[in-house]
Amino acid sequence: MVFRQRKNKVNMETKPNEPIITLEYNNDYTPMGLTKREYFAAMAMKGIITNKDGLDIKIERIAESAVDMADALIEELNKKR
């Protein structure tokens, strides 16, 4: 059984609810894991928590900020350049 990552086509639009990985097996594409939005939010949350330097920030506020950052990144990535 061989899995390989699907190559993106010319359209590079970032869709927040698409998975970060799609595997191909026998010409069947299977989404795997987190959505792009979830992944971006997790990375933002990791950065916030790592760099909060003793600040007393509620976890709900950290999570909200991380999702806001993920949405802003997706919006910026989809701007026509």
For this entry, give a set of tags.
single chain, 81 residues, alpha+beta, 3-stranded antiparallel sheet, 2 helices, 21% strand
Query: Strand order of the main beta sheet, please?
Result: 1-2-3
Class derived from helix and strand content: alpha+beta
* Residue windows where pLDDT falls under 50 for at least 5 positions: none
Enumerate how many helices there are, as a single number.
2
Q: What is the subunit organization of this protein? A: single chain
Number of strands: 3
Order of helices and strands: EEEHH
Through-space gap between termini: 40 Å
**What is the 3D form?**
elongated
Let me know the largest β-sheet: 3 strands, antiparallel
Report on the structure:
This protein is α+β, with helices and mostly antiparallel strands and 81 residues long. The protein has one domain (4-77). The protein is 42% helix and 21% strand. It has a three-stranded antiparallel sheet. 6% of the residues are buried. The model has no long low-confidence stretch (mean pLDDT 81).
